[in-house]
Design goal:
Blueprint: H1 3-10, H2 14-23, H3 29-32, H4 42-57, H5 61-64, H6 66-74, H7 85-96, H8 100-112, H9 115-140, E1 143-145, E2 148-150, H10 153-160, H11 165-180, H12 183-202, H13 211-228, H14 231-259, H15 265-277, H16 287-302, H17 310-315, H18 321-350, H19 360-363, H20 367-378, H21 384-417, H22 421-445, H23 450-487
Antiparallel strand pairs: 1-2
Helix pairs in contact: 2-23, 4-9, 4-23, 6-18, 7-14, 7-18, 7-21, 8-16, 8-18, 8-20, 9-15, 9-16, 9-18, 9-23, 10-11, 10-23, 11-21, 11-23, 12-13, 12-21, 12-22, 13-21, 13-22, 14-18, 14-21, 18-20, 21-22
């Protein structure tokens, strides 16, 4: 038995624990029989419930200050400490806009039908209010660290709970574990994308043991390490460059495909709104499935309520704490209402499940393969390969930007444990020279290591259960900050 196989087996015992935490109380028979509500786990109910409550108590802050978010981002800022609001927005977008914007959306549509996209929009709308609360808390409780601001979930968690260093330590460790065990899967996504790009450029198919994959792996490790050791400012510079290019490229490709398939646009809206309440039989025919898939995938994509991108909000030099709340709320909008919607649009108008010549049930198990098939259906023959090339490149850069953001946030969380430079450098080394190479080794060996991803799911749900009680406790501070901002007439 290989070393990697042993690692895979070691983590297999976490599978039932993860399932219980994600599904509770849906794993109880009496609860599953409750109409509508029985379709949702406690985690999803908490996230949606908080979003609804915050939306009402803050008088629909995500709508009232939507334009202000854009105005703040356009404002010229000279920052001596921390990073600019725009840099903060792009840094948080780097982790929000990831492979899940393609894989997650495709998976939601395949499992729940086109109507899942409608419920994804609903969850994102309320998630924008939740994100406002946690981002504002991050600004209120941020701390100065040299030329940077540090903060986020570990910091506001400590301050909200009697300034307990033990609490701060536990939350920081929880986030670090969450991020570290998410890194290998992002590396896998990068290999998938760049391997596809190389195959399309050369016309050859490469095995994972080929020299090409070795070179790709070494480049991933090298470039990541160089950027990460430049600190959060260098990471922000990298994401300032990567995020706009990949997002705009993906957006333009999608607009082109939609433009040449305009006759299919009416079907999109019909399928989404009808499917939200009455899905086709091929997707289970139950509204609850569409509801569950859309809300779950939406929440996991934009990360509202998980506290996992709050470090970016804290890093900004803001005129008022709520301005970061506005900006990060806008980030949820861009992630779900723009990027996720684009992916859903392409999958739905391709309508592969109703086309002859495709084995829908076989394709359904391969989300990325299904998305590529959708692109083929929508693309002109002569542009099929260039479009696949560009989308694969965007997909890989989505994963790379997520890696950079997560490692930067690991460093910020580590400052809650200790601000000793040696310790912080060790954390960077563990991230870039242990967990990134581990992901690379998994790909080189051909091991899928399914059970390794289970620990990522486990730490993900842990972050939800840690963060939601904290933002409920801290909500009054975000509410007071908004009231203060409004009494001062806003700041521009």
């Amino acid at each position: 038995m290989s070393y990697l196989s042993r690692v895979n087996d070691v983590f297999s015992f976490l599978n039932p624990i993860t399932d219980v935490l994600w599904e509770f109380p849906r794993n109880l028979e009496f609860y599953k029989n409750i109409p509508i509500i029985g379709e949702f786990s406690l985690a999803i109910l908490l996230l949606i419930g908080c979003g609804l409550y915050f939306t009402l108590k803050l008088n629909f802050v995500q709508i009232r200050y939507f334009k202000r978010s854009v105005d703040i981002l356009k404002r010229k800022n000279e920052t001596k400490i921390g990073i600019s609001p725009m840099a903060s927005f792009l840094l948080s977008s780097a982790t929000r806009i990831g492979p899940g914007n393609i894989m997650g959306v495709t998976g939601a549509v395949l499992a729940g039908g086109p109507g899942a996209l409608f419920w994804m929009w609903v969850s994102a709308f309320f998630g924008m209010a939740t994100c406002f609360v946690e981002a504002t808390l991050s600004q209120i409780f941020k701390e100065k660290n040299g030329d940077d601001y540090v903060g986020g979930i570990a910091y506001y968690g400590r301050r909200l709970l009697n300034n307990s260093k033990v609490v701060g330590f536990i939350i920081a460790v929880a986030y670090i574990f969450y991020a570290l065990f998410t890194l290998p899967s992002q590396v896998f996504h990068m290999f998938t994308a760049f391997g596809s790009v190389a195959s399309q450029v050369t016309g050859s198919v490469y095995a994972r043991t080929d020299t090409l994959y070795i070179v790709i792996g070494l480049l991933i490790i090298l470039v990541t390490t160089i950027i990460i050791f430049g600190g959060i400012r260098r990471v922000a510079l990298a994401t300032d460059f990567i995020v706009p290019i990949m997002a705009v490229t993906y957006f333009v490709i999608a607009l082109f495909l939609i433009g040449i398939n305009l006759d299919k646009v009416p079907y999109f809206f019909t399928a989404v709104f009808r499917g939200a309440f009455s899905p086709e039989a091929i997707f289970g025919g139950a509204m609850g499935i569409a509801l569950q898939q859309g809300i779950k995938r939406g929440l996991m994509s934009n990360e509202a309520g998980q506290g996992t991108v709050t470090m970016a909000a804290a890093a900004a030099d803001a005129k008022h704490p709520v301005e970061q709340g506005f900006i990060q709320s806008f980030g949820v909008f861009v992630d779900t209402f723009v990027i996720c919607t684009i992916s859903g649009f392409l999958v739905i108008i391709a309508n592969v499940w109703n086309l002859d010549g495709f084995d829908f049930m076989a394709l359904r198990s391969d989300k990325l393969g299904y998305f590529i098939t959708s692109l083929k259906v929508l693309s002109p023959t002569m542009l099929e390969k260039p479009i696949q090339f560009l989308v694969a490149l965007c997909y890989g850069m989505f994963a790379f930007s997520t890696i950079l953001g997560m490692i930067a946030f690991i460093e910020v969380s580590a400052t809650e444990i200790s601000r000793n430079k040696v310790f912080l450098n060790i954390m960077k080394l563990i991230s870039s020279l242990v967990f990134i190479p581990f992901g690379v080794a998994c790909v080189w060996s051909g091991a899928e290591l399914d059970n390794i991803w289970i620990i990522s799911d486990l730490t993900n749900i842990m972050m939800v259960y840690i963060n939601v009680p904290l933002i409920i406790i801290g909500f009054k501070y975000s509410q007071m900050a908004l009231k203060d901002y409004e009494e001062k007439g806003g700041l521009l």
